[in-house]
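User: Here's a structure from my thesis project, written as structure tokens. My advisor, Dr. K., wants to see whether a designed sequence matches the one we expressed. Can you design one independently, without my sequence as a hint?
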């Protein structure tokens, strides 16, 4: 089945095989004549990136690229990117890649016209109103993985190069104006990245669904997102060239990011510090801490998860859902716990303090304290 779709929710999304050929049209829709394609170092030399640049060049839009982007982009990458953007006289950004390429691309478009330091726009209260919205450049987003969902998000994650703490930079206009979801771009992902990114999408849906905040629209999207992951992630894992599975995983990734406007929780507040300290893959870390977090949250989400299980065709309520997560993880080769991931429990106090500072902490269904979060970390080993 060849799935093709055009959506205007939450922004213009062009989904389907081969639609990267519409990249130049997407730029022109937003008025771009000289876009800067931003991606990470690893992707810069890959054929999919060269092809995207070819599409731009053939339409007379040049083939400018900035790829000096670390796996966890920091303020130095951002500064270099803004410099390249200004020196090149660009008028917008094609954010291309997984989480790092997408986020840094979005942040370059955002910061190119601002005068205040980027940290002034952290996702706290109404700090975003400090930005001059008229100076934010248009963004076309092209994901090459299926997990982060940053292509439909209004935030970008930036790591402080000194403290290694990840900060969320937020502005409504960080939402790309056009998104191209071409599943062929994700076919080259190695299995471990397919799993890590796919489990990130699942974690977004699960945490958004479990979050206590009132947002029934997000709740519904999260539920269907989980169903898509359940049906299609094992297929994409078994056969990376399964385009129907790859297409549906791109949908699930976008849905996870739409849904988590409702909130995230302990999976992410644990995973962020582990990733910052040990440089582990974000989505894979989420998958590793998922069962202990489910046990931790059980008193608050048991009934809700039983409803999700029924929708997903899983028998046995909460227990059935929990067992399903365990079997999905083993089917996909996810490490059993943090020990199996090669991490020692010798920095738990530091990790706990960082988890309590994480913005996802406040959205967890069970209130997180220093004591119970430390115990939860221990349970992850
Ligand atoms: Fe995530």
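Assistant: Designed independently from the structure alone:
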């Amino acid at each position: 089945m060849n799935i093709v779709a055009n959506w205007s929710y939450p922004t213009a999304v062009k989904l389907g095989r081969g639609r990267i050929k519409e990249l130049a049209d997407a730029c022109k829709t937003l008025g771009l004549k000289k876009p800067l394609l931003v991606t990470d170092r690893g992707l810069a030399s890959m054929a999919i990136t060269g092809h995207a640049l070819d599409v731009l060049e053939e339409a007379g839009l040049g083939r400018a690229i900035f790829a000096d982007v670390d796996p966890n982009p920091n303020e130095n990458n951002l500064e270099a990117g803004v410099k390249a953007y200004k020196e090149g006289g660009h008028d917008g950004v094609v954010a291309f890649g997984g989480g790092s390429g997408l986020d840094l691309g979005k942040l370059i478009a955002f910061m190119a016209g601002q005068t205040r330091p980027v940290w002034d726009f952290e996702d706290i209260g109404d700090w975003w109103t400090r930005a001059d919205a008229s100076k934010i450049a248009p963004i076309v987003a092209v994901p090459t993985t299926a997990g982060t969902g940053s292509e439909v998000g209004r935030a970008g994650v930036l790591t402080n190069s000194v403290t290694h703490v990840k900060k969320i930079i937020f502005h409504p206009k960080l939402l790309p104006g056009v998104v191209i979801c071409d599943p062929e771009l994700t076919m080259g992902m190695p299995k471990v990245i397919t799993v890590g990114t796919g489990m990130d999408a699942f974690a977004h849906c699960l945490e958004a669904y479990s979050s206590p905040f009132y947002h029934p629209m997000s709740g519904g999207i999260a539920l269907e997102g989980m169903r898509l992951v359940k049906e299609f992630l094992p297929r994409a894992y078994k056969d990376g060239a399964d385009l129907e599975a790859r297409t549906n995983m791109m949908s699930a990734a976008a849905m996870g990011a739409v849904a988590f406007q409702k909130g995230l929780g302990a999976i992410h507040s644990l995973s962020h510090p582990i990733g910052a300290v040990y440089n582990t893959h974000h989505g894979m870390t989420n998958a590793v801490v998922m069962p202990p977090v489910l046990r931790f949250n059980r008193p608050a989400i048991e009934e809700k998860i039983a409803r999700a299980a029924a929708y997903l065709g899983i028998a046995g309520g909460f227990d059935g859902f929990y067992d399903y997560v365990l079997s999905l993880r083993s089917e996909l080769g996810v490490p059993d716990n943090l020990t199996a991931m090669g991490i020692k429990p010798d920095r738990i106090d530091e990790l706990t303090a960082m988890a309590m500072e994480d913005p996802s902490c406040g959205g967890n269904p069970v209130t997180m304290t220093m004591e119970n979060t430390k115990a939860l970390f221990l349970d992850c080993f």
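When you compare it with your expressed construct, this may help: Strands lie at 4-7, 12-16, 36-38, 64-66, 93-97, 139-143, 155-159, 166-170, 178-181.
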